[in-house]
Design goal:
The chain is mostly beta strands. Helix content is 2%, strand content 45%. The chain contains two helices and 49 strands. The strands form ten sheets. Strands 1, 2, 3, 4, 5, 26, 27 and 28 form an eight-stranded antiparallel sheet that branches. Strands 39, 41, 43, 46, 48 and 49 form a six-stranded antiparallel sheet that branches. It has a five-stranded mixed sheet with strand order 33-35-31-29-37. A hairpin with a 5-residue loop joins strand 10 and strand 11. The protein starts with a helix and ends with a strand. The relative contact order is 0.09.
Length: 729
Amino acid sequence: MTVAQNLLSVPQFQSLETRTLFAAGAMDTSFGSQGMAVVDFGEGYIAQAAATAVQSDGKTIVVGKVVKGTGSNEKYHFAIARFTIDGKLDNSFGPNKNGRMIHAVGGYSRAGATAVAVQPDGKILVAGGAHTIVSYGFDRFRFAIMRFLPNGSFDNSFGKSGFTDVGFDGSATPHDIALQNDGKIVIAGDDYNFTKPYTNFAICRLNVNGSRDNSFDTDGRRSVDLGSNSSDSGSSVAIDYTGTAATNPNYGKIVMAGTRWTATGSGRAALIRFKTNGFIDNSFDKDGKVFTSIPGNLAMSASDLLFQPDGKIVIAGGGNGNFAMQRFLPTGAADNSFGTDGNSFVITSFGANSAADKIHRNGDGSLIVAGRVNEQFALAKYSANGVPDYSFGDGGKVRSTFGSETDWDGVGFAYGPGKRFVVAGGLGFGTARYMDTGANVVTIGTFNTNASEAGPKGTGFVVGRPERLPTPLRVYLNVSGTARAPGRVSPIKDYTGTGMSFGNGQTTSTYVDIPANQTFASVGIMPIDDLLVEGTETAIFSIAPNPAYEPDIHSKVTINIADNDGTLLNATADSYVRDGTNAATNYGAAADLSVKRASSGFNRQVYMKFHIDAVSTITTAKLRLFGKLSALEGAGIATSVFGAPSTSWSESGLTWNNRPALSGSALSTTTITDTTARWYEWDVSAYVQAQKAAGKTVVTLVLTNLINSSQFSTFNSREAGNGPQLLVG
């Protein structure tokens, strides 16, 4: 089978059905199984996902709970899973290195994760409610927060061994996490007051180390009653970092969103803005609070919010069985420029009972809303001003059936990597990844990463796209690695390539053309069998950014090119010596090594020491020196190498007076012919073999001229780079 045939057998490059466009809102089939993944926590646990986040490296974190037992014996715990960028459980994550974790939070019998955030340093925050005692016939929960290192182990610098909790007056459950620019952590949810009995908005702020921030409402926490005889459910929190502190009077203020439920069950979306010190900001709609319902006094809930760059606030939730959004000005007033009806609302019907859980703003300003419709994931996309994007999915909407989703703790939503987004929720930690608008994805991969100068033996890679389009696509590549590529400024190259146009790395680019009506192009890489000792070199090809496509998660391949020119040993000590008035002078720190035979006072010899103990067997050995003639006279200078039995001399102490004696006759002679520096070689195989056989771990080699001459040679010492080398095979 040829290299190209091998490459084309890789499943990730198999052709998809013929389509003219890669539809926004379509499943990203490079994730999990055809775009979807689930988690089996084993041991009879029932798993429910509640929130998700995507790390900067593209890995996906999903959190929720696992339940075991029933009735009074029911227990549930924090559950956390991490997927690799291609949707497999990440075996570098968690104490068991299997991509999933279960934690009995603080030893509590009932605890479920409801929110997750990834800090800029890669540490992972997970928050949820944890059961403590039973009071007034109700379970009393506290905000429970855990922080993990990027590998899933506890961050012992946070709280007590990676865990802290915050109690309120009643039973409190967090629903969202926001990170301040100074590293402090804001957590928001609700608190059930048993004496009313009603639920209030609840919020707390922690220092970086997990302790309560007492500069926030004096004790780091606050419970807010939005009105008498109402049950107030806090769902989301965000911090206004639009503009700068100099241009935005609300910079750093905190906004919570949720729902105010009256005694009759009528819901109104609710917002409250806090100052940075945790006190209510009365400049927001005059009392710090906003309540709103769909025109006609129809019920509306708020599940999430975000800030747009101009400081406007968009909330998303449910309204009369539909997705509902509304936008507010920074003052708290409704923004009637949002949507198409002139009333600040956007209502999206999925033809069945539905509600939005999360909203995200893309880099281009567009908005994606994720939620549920019956037992399906539901998605919708809009412009920055709330106008439906009909290029997304089916008329701006997407519905996805994903296994058994009959039991929901919420829908998690996160954007990335690239023009993709992840949705998670329901039983089994159901997680799906979708493509966004403009995701013309290209990928690169190889069946075999290894090539060799021996033979030589080649390999290759393919550049692919998921669509069989009627037009060709040029994919640009960045070329790097230690191996010298064709087309570069240096005339020396380490490999050749077919199926690819090599640029010079300066004014022209390297590219591969995927032909029209094809989903891939194959590239062959063939090493050049040279005589240089280079060790294993790398040729790295990565997809370069371009407006014409979106690089896939598989955007780089590394080809390893094995050398066949032996093992290179560098000198561990070198120096030259000189007779006459310089006979007691040491030249061990000099950048050059001089060799000359002349009258007394002008003679110079070079001593070099090599360790051969790292090489098990030696069949050939060549001394290599980089040097030149001082001047060109005649045919050059015959320069010979000798062995010396003694290896006890030191680079900093060697002189003409204490130099070791030479043994026997010359081992090899080479004529130095050029005044421009280059590599020269001497065959010292027999001597080095004999020293190895005698059990020696170090050898001394000495360079000298046998014939008097006014010329002399200079070679690089190890201090100058390109120092003496012993090539053994």
